[in-house]
Amino acid sequence: MNLSVLIKQYFSSVSDDITIDVFDEKNIYEVYQRVVGVLTQHIEIETTVLQAMSYCFYEILDNVLTHSDKELGTVITHYDAANHILSFLVADDGIGVRGSLAENKEYVGVTEVEALKMCIKDAITDGKGMGFGLYSTSLLARDAGLKFEVRSGQHTLLVQDGVDTAIETELWQGTIVYLQLRTNKEINPAEVVANRTNVVA
Question: Strands 19-23, 163-182: parallel, antiparallel or unpaired by DSSP?
């Protein structure tokens, strides 16, 4: 995986304090706890955003190990305290969104663009999960997001102001999920998880 490309494309305006972690089945929870633990120390981050982000963040990490057919994923995080912006990116070089959905016979014929638009909807899954991780992340992006992108193959799905747009982009073998959040905005974390779990706990 070409980390320099990811940093150049998604974190080019950041001069320092980028954190990069590689995770697998053995250390996924350790990486999750460390990232969230560091953010918890920033008292200026709105608690409700952190609660919802913590849920979605783990779901996205777990998606790599569950759906990509790869044993490793990479996460890049950056927190801009001065501007109250949290950015994180989770990437893999696996089979991609369309390849994953095609493992469910119901979605065998979907195109890459259709797969990207479907993957952020509720209960869309390849059969290995609940189809809730990217959906809840889209709800978080709706409530506190600045940028939300899902990139796979030769297309990127941009989600902004409730509108999703697929554009053609440089090939990425696998999947990238990129989210940029306002951390000083109070939200209702229960709405992000559609009241299906006690996200506060």
Answer: unpaired
Rounded-to-integer distance, Cα 36 and Cα 60, Å: 14
The rounded distance, in Å, linking the Cα atoms of 3 and 107 is 31
Q: b/e string for 84-103 if b means 16 or more Cβ within 10 A?
A: bbbbbbbbbbbbbbbbbbbe
Residue 153 DSSP label: E
The CA distance from 178 to 33, in Å, is 19
Say whether 194 sits in a helix, a strand or coil.
coil
Measure Cα distances from 48 to 77, 122, 143, 154, 189 in Å: 19, 22, 11, 35, 6
The alpha carbon of residue 52 and the mean position of all alpha carbons in its chain are separated, in whole angstroms, by 12
Q: Residue 187 carries which DSSP code?
A: -
Phi, psi of 68, deg, nearest 5 = -90, -15
Q: What is the CA radius of gyration of the chain?
A: 16
**What is the model's pLDDT at position 3?**
87
Percent residues over pLDDT 90 in the chain = 83
pLDDT per residue over 74-88, tens digit each?
Answer: 999 999 999 999 999
pLDDT at 100: 96
In angstroms, rounded to a whole number, what is the distance separating the alpha carbons of residues 80 and 44? 11
CB 78 within 8 A of CB 87: yes
Does residue 32 surpass a pLDDT of 70? yes
pTM of the model: 0.94
